[in-house]
Amino acid sequence: MDYELAIIGAGPAGFSSAIYAKRSGISTVVFDRGSGGGLMQIAPNIENYTGFDSIRGVELVEKMKQHAAKYADFHFYEEVKEITASSLGFTIRTEKATYQVGAVVLCTGTEHRKLDVPGEAELLGKGVSYCATCDGFFFKGKKVLVVGGGNTALIESIFLKQIGCKEVYVVHRRDQFRAEKIYEEEAQKKGVHFIFNTIVEEIVGKGNVSSVGLFNLETSERLQLAVDGVFASIGVLPQNHIAQSLGVKLDENGYIVVDAAQRTSVHGVYAAGDITGGVRQVIIACAKGAIAALSSTEALGKKYPY
Ligand code: NAP
Prior knowledge:
The protein has helices at residues 12-23, 57-69, 132-135, 151-162, 181-190, 241-246, 282-299, and strands spanning 3-8, 28-31, 73-75, 80-85, 90-94, 98-106, 110-112, 128-129, 143-147, 167-171, 193-195, 198-204, 211-216, 222-226, 229-232, 236-238, 269-271. By secondary structure, it is an alpha/beta fold. The chain folds into two domains: 3-111 and 236-299, FAD/NAD(P)-binding domain; 114-232, FAD/NAD(P)-binding domain (3-Layer(bba) Sandwich), CATH 3.50.50.60. Strands 1, 2, 3, 4, 5, 6 and 17 form a seven-stranded mixed sheet that branches. A five-stranded parallel sheet has the order 8-15-9-10-11, with helices on one face. Strands 12-13-14 form a three-stranded antiparallel sheet, with no helix packed on it. Helix 1 (12-23) packs parallel to helix 2, helix 1 packs parallel to helix 7 and helix 4 (151-162) packs parallel to helix 5. The radius of gyration is 21 Å and the shape is elongated. The relative contact order is 0.18. Residues 48, 113, 115, 147-153, 155, 173-174, 178, 199, 233-236, 280 line the site of NADP nicotinamide-adenine-dinucleotide phosphate.
């Protein structure tokens, strides 16, 4: 066996899982197809992680990375392609090698949902973005539109205003946001324009985004709004293809079903973080990642350390 435990995904759940696994005497490897951090990497500021009044997402990622590196082998930029059951536990096939492990913790998180409108794919990187923190600076002094009504949409609109976008619009398909009131009020204070009951029908531009076609669901009116950038902040979808290949049970929205010990429906496979749905918060992902690692002791025939 190469490692007793493999953790797939180095976001907050994966980092804390690695720390708790090694401290329980489990040899651990962590795979991530990128540089790690998950969606925390693109959070402008995290203000509800205990012990930190306010910390930039990238900074918290760096702190977690350095902490967890003391405990496990991290294989960044190594995407896991497939996991299958084997006599020792599981065979993990990545784009670089094959590994034998005894148990698995899936912390694969979520990815951005797409608008699925004409122009979106063609103008990606040419005005269309899914991350204001990453790409917002290119739009200083310009007009931008954020799509969505959740926390992310409102937080991104505030960020875009703060960095000096000339006009920031938030377009939402309902008559009220689902975001926390505090973000709505701050966006309003900053001068963000809200457009309710409206959907984006198309994104237009030759080379770069120049306008969006909007449709008002109440009045059935159509409007072409001149903007230079479109940030789609319409939520996330579970990255569940590895779970599916393992035959792990998913709920109706594609999230992995786990019990209180973070066990999945497949013996020896645990899951934690956003991939398990529920309240998607860094602190909760960390806690569930820790529980998953501790629970893996049972599949590995080790003593539960607490
Ligand atoms: P979200 O809460 O799921 O909101 C997605 C928004 O996009 C909803 O308003 C939804 O509209 C809209 N939407 C979905 N599909 C759409 C489509 N095809 N066209 C137009 N609009 C569409 O997603 P999120 O804001 O990314 O947040 C994800 C999770 O992270 C949430 O649990 C959130 O609370 C959490 N989060 C927390 C914080 C924080 O605590 N500081 C910060 C960021 C995110 P409907 O309202 O009509 O469904």
